[in-house]
Amino acid sequence: MDYLAESYLGYRPKPIESLIGKKGKDQKSMGDLEPSEVSDYASEDADITLQLHNQFKPALKERSVEELYKNVEAPLVAILTDMEYQGVGLDVPFLEEYSIELKSEAVQRRDSIYEQAGTEFNLNSPKQLGDILFNQMGIEYKGKKTKTGQFSTSEDVLSKIDHAIVKDILDYRELTKLQSTYVDALPRMVNPRTGRIHTSFRQAIVPTGRLSSDHPNLQNIPIRTERGRRIRKAFVPPSDEYVLLAADYSQVELRIIAALSGDEGMIQAFKDGLDIHRSTAAKVFGLEMDEVTSDLRRKAKAVNFGLAYGQGAFGLAQNLGISRKEAKEIIDNYFEKYPGIKTYMDQSIAQARENGYSETLLGRKRALPDINGRNNTVRAAAERNAINTPIQGSAADIIKVAMVDIHKEMGQRQLRSKMTLQVHDELVFDVHKDELEEVRALVTERMTGAADLAVPLVVESGVGSDWLEAH
DNA sequence: GGATTGAGTCT
DNA sequence: GGAGACTCAATCC
Known about the structure:
Strand content: 5-15%
Order of helices and strands: HHHHEHHHHHEEEHEEHHHHHHHEEHEEHE
Number of helices: 19
Strand order of the largest sheet: 9-10-6-11
Helix content: 40-55%
CATH architecture of the largest domain: Orthogonal Bundle
Number of strands: 11
CATH superfamily of the largest domain: 5' to 3' exonuclease, C-terminal subdomain
Number of domains: 4
Distance between the termini: 54 Å
Structural class: alpha+beta
CATH class of the largest domain: Mainly Alpha
Largest sheet: 4 strands, antiparallel
CATH topology of the largest domain: DNA polymerase, domain 1
């Protein structure tokens, strides 16, 4: 190889260390190279590829992740490429109309704010806004300062203030966020050749194994508020011969917690197909299922949710606006009723401490060098990673397996339908109307069957002429 | 002009 | 003082 390259092409192979460095921050990826640093010669590329192979082959074996690589990550590369090429349809005229609507609303809010402040200023500057509200207008400030010593004007702080100007500010923020980040930005990203939006899915960014998406990020399209949701109406199929299919895993992270922990109570709740938050509330607050109020269900839901992140009493209290004492009681009660989960979380930390890493369902590993550190804050963060990584990462493993299965089967059956997006627990497809029932069944079956856990995996799907309808 | 900060969007 | 991302506008350097 070296001989051929050098003698026939006058090329001297570069040692691989010059490209990837030995370790840590010295590492350089192909993406970091200037165009002038990238070879014009296929032989040099091939040589570099071989050297990378020689580096990574033993490294994969060392970490026992050859199967994960061979069966999941490597096949996924071409699938993501297909999805990126396929792109998604965007209804540009719809967004152009919506932009005008948002703009006129925002202007009304802005003028109202200036009038109440008695002055005009840069409303988009948190620094100027904080000065106006808490110095000039004399509104009482109850939050904590930012790390640069400024007043925080975050939604968290503002929403606790009872003042008309604050409602206008929060409204203005929502309107301008939607407009600048989505409604105006997305049409500019339409590829002139395809007339569609082509995101980039990145496979090696997130330490837990999730994908990320950028240029544009299609994994954070709004859904929570009414104004935000409307943006999803702009995501459309390629023609009227197609519809959108959206399929998502129901409560996948909580199911993974149940399965990995082996907690009998939570496993049984999922086997029985119960409303898990209601079931949790009944257990924790000592009630029958039909005695659970919406407020108690909300609290149980917050605990279930915070669980996956290693959240403590402080965080739960903050989240629910209750006292630390009450939050602690709820959490203590929770672990008493779900003892398997408490044990599992302690074990997750203990195992990470012994190994120096956390591990997912398919053996993906995340190094946690700070897990034995002396700095309490840093160590606590590593302990939360030790809890969260197997949960978030196993969910990532599972949907990736489903994507590989579905893509393969769709290819073998020569279907015209295409997978277009992945949003962590959801897959989106352009589906030809003739194939709708076949694809819906295939997707549901493969997603459901992507892992064999102690609890069932449940998939919900919807169909529509836009992304909002498909949900 | 690039990097950082504060804010806000998603799972 | 809850996990993981990306983007925007203002501001800093």
